[in-house]
Amino acid sequence: MLRYLLKRLFFMVPMLFGITLISFLVIHLVPGEPGALDTDMNPKVTKQVRERIRAFYGLDKPLHVQYWMWLKRIVKFDFGVSFAPDRRPVINKIKERLPVTILINLLSMALIFLVGIPIGIYCARYKDSILDKALTSFVFAGYAAPTFWIALLLMMFFGVYLELLPISGIKSFNFSELSFFDKTIDVAKHLILPVCISGFGGLAGISRYMKNSLLEVLRQEYITTAYAKGLPEGMVLKKHALRNALLPVITILGLSIPGLIGGSVIFESIFSIPGMGQLFYMSVMARDYPTIMGILVIGAFLTLLGNLIADISYALADPRIRIG
Amino acid sequence: MSASFTLTDTFVRITTSMLPRHCFLFILLAFLLFGCSQQKETMSYDDPGKPAYGDMIVMASIGEASNLIPLLSADSASHEIAGQIYNGLVKYDKDLNIVGSLAESWEISKDNLSITFRLKRGVKWHDGKPFTAHDVMYTYKVTIDPKTPTAYAADFQLVKKAEVLDDYTFRATYDKPFAPALISWATAIMPRHLLEGKDITASPLNRKPVGTGPFVFKEWIPGDRVVLTANADYFEGRPYIGRYMMRIIPDSATMFLELKRYGIDMMGLAPLQFLKQTEYPRFKQEYNKYKYLAFNYTYLGFNLKHGLFKDRRVRQAISYAIGRKEIIDGILLGLGEEATGPFTPNMWAYNGNVKRYPYSKEKALALLREAGYEKGTDGMLKRNGSPFEFTLLVNQGNTVRIQCAELIQRRLSEVGITVKIRVLEWASLINEFIDKRNFDAVILGWSINPEPDPYDIWHSSKQGPKELNFISFENKEVDELIVKARHTFDRAERKRYYGRFQEIIAEEAPYVFLFYPYATVAIHKRFKGIEPAAAGLMHNFIKWYVPENQRRYRANAALSP
């Protein structure tokens, strides 16, 4: 097991290297230059000034040299300094924004599992019933509808019309005056819409997986046996079918991480949540290369780690799979 | 209240008579419905009240401020916030005259080569240290320092000699008389005692600025908000509004919802928002809407190196063939004025008495015929067998410009010109097409400064890569006029030069000047003392106030732990 783990971790290195190389090339292919150079069409900026700023950021060097310089730093876990005019270390910028993104992603992941799995089970058990069809349409609607559109509709309804929930941000203006209990309520209220929205899109995948996997299992002979020996239905489902059917769902856990991170970019911008997704969006708009690369590296690392954890927990849960 | 009861009663009576068995349910439903539509207690903000210190104004910005040392940032959010924290030596008043800010007065030498500023005494930095001429000197030096990555060095590089005569006198001397020199000292003055000898790009002042301005920096929660508090010792008087908050809301639709929900107090509106989406009683009860001429114009620019547009008659014909009025009425919903040239009507240099191009298909066709174009059998214009067609570039995300392009396409097709529209992302439009001069025509806009010097956009020497005369406009007389006006301090004389400059531009029609848009803003009604003027709204911001009985936020709201 340990050997397997080490081997997997070792193979993550070239993979990460490949990811950074491709990312670096792609973001430099995009026309436009970093935010400090966002001086296109500004009469006050002369050519010499522009050259000066380019040299300051090392943008006057060829691309492969720039990549090499970046790589030399990153292996020492130095993410560099942001190209945004604030010139702050990238790692600080990411650090202050990572917690809220992880919190929302964990919450919406929990939501997806807590709602998606029961839906899947229900749809498998009562296949082709009206409610099955309704639920299926519901989750697919969530999958198909654009996040920003649903988000705006819900903000209008719960925020502007009913005035029940805050529209954007993560804390109220008077946050500092609240008691600890009220602070929790305040943050929770701000999180309801973003978590629901980011969870809604993920329901389809997990519930369909759950349904198909359970249907598959229910066709097995040992289930027939269980029914034949007169076990009550609940027992058959819970003890015999569900345990086996849940296994493939674990894989989804690992696979859904990149989707969630990508989704953060959209809903954090809409709900103005100061998270990593919003930082990513703004960095891309400002062509802040070190910050973009920093977030991509962390995102890639989290994704690879998620896959690894999924594989390991799969092995731990399924006696048929042995590693090492 | 009584009205709604009788209504409910009738409603219940009707329903009970129709469906006796479900009457209870219906009564419940009716109550729920009326419960929902019940209005909350709304305050009246019509009473102008008395000026009082306190409350907070909440603004919003699409982008986060990048750096609160304005020298180092180019984005509008940073400059908007920094504008409340720092002062320059001079500033524009509400009628766009240059008046002193940190400077008490100034003297321009007889030969027009040097400006001597006498600075205000007793001005203090937010940390209590006195402001002196050495701070001005430091600001000048750090701006022209090649190690400082600033976009604003150009004006100060023309200074031949800068000297501190005493603690409260500063003199800048130029090689040649330079008319925009005075206003270039509106640059934010930096505190020398906190910055000198240190790397300005790594200074803590980037995130925690210390200035002399009406508001003092309080806190910055990254990605969320920046908060400032009123400077009680401000040399022009303590601002009435106690706090200034700038929220970061990256999505404009969300921002508008926040406005409707009273989460922000002030926001610029799109035409449709201004005219339709805010026209309901509750909104009008809570917000005042303002509109005023903004300092920018939108134009269609021709690439004058392109064979089609070398001929002035062709450019004039296109100017006639485009209906500005229908663009303003149809696309801006009336929120703009027809443009006549590169200056806006609220500027002193504006000359409206120039050649105009009212919509006229006949004049357009006549000019095109004169230029050698004949209508073919398909109704399209041709010269020597080749059809008159070109590509019009426009940037993505700017709906107004895209709609203008469509309207222009239609109007030009009526005179027989084929226009292809290409919508491009901003960075690639500028870098791949404009900078490489690889375009036929483009719709863009210029923001202009009340100081009119048009050198960078219209002088023939400004055609280099990345320079702004990208349409390659060359006119000897224009060059001379621009340079003369640049080195003249007498405003009447400058106005004459610029008047002639505008006449030539209108005659030559290198751009089709489309419109001057209005800025449209909603501000919450509890803020009083707002005076729209030529300079916009914010010129007397420190005089805005909220009467005590209309206050919304308590003194220490808005601060995080």
Count of helices of chain A? Answer: 11
Mean residue pLDDT of chain A: 84
Main sheet characteristics of chain A = none
Strand content of chain B: 15-25%
How far is it from the N-terminal to the C-terminal residue of chain A, by CA? 5 Å
Protein topology:
The complex is a heterodimer of chains A (324) and B (561).
Chain A (H helix, E strand, L loop, with lengths): L1 H28 L17 H10 L6 H12 L15 H36 L4 H15 L2 H15 L18 H39 L2 H8 L4 H38 L5 H11 L2 H29 L7
Helix pairs in contact in A: 1-11, 4-5, 4-7, 4-9, 4-11, 5-7, 6-7, 7-9, 8-9, 9-10, 9-11, 10-11
Chain B lengths: L1 H17 L4 H15 L16 E8 L14 H10 L4 E3 L5 E3 L2 E6 L5 E6 L13 H12 L14 E8 L2 E6 L6 H4 L7 H4 L19 E7 L3 E6 L10 E8 L3 H9 L5 E3 L2 H7 L3 H6 E7 L2 E7 L9 H10 L2 H7 L5 E3 L22 H10 L3 E2 L5 E3 L2 E2 L1 E7 L3 H16 L3 E7 L1 H9 L6 E7 L7 H4 L17 H11 L4 H18 L2 E14 L37
Parallel strand pairs in B: 1-10, 18-19, 18-20
Antiparallel strand pairs in B: 2-3, 4-5, 5-7, 6-7, 8-9, 9-10, 11-21, 12-21, 13-20, 13-21, 14-21, 15-16, 16-17
List keywords for this structure.
heterodimer; A: 324 residues; mainly alpha; 74% helix; 0% strand; B: 561 residues; alpha+beta; four-stranded mixed beta sheet; 17 helices; 21 strands; globular; disordered N terminus; disordered C terminus
Characterization of this structure:
- Chain A is an all-alpha fold.
- Chain A is built from 11 helices and no strands.
- Chain A is globular and about 85 Å long.
- The mean pLDDT of chain A is 84.
- In chain B, the strands form 5 sheets. In chain B, strands 11, 12, 13, 14, 18, 19, 20 and 21 form an 8-stranded mixed beta sheet that branches. Chain B has a 4-stranded mixed beta sheet with strand order 1-10-9-8, with helices on one face.
- Mean pLDDT of chain B is 87; it is low at 1-21, 31-40 and 557-561.
- Chain B is α+β, with helices and mostly antiparallel strands.
- The two termini of chain B are 44 Å apart.
- Chains A and B meet through α2, α4, α6 and α10 of A and β10, α7 and α14 of B.
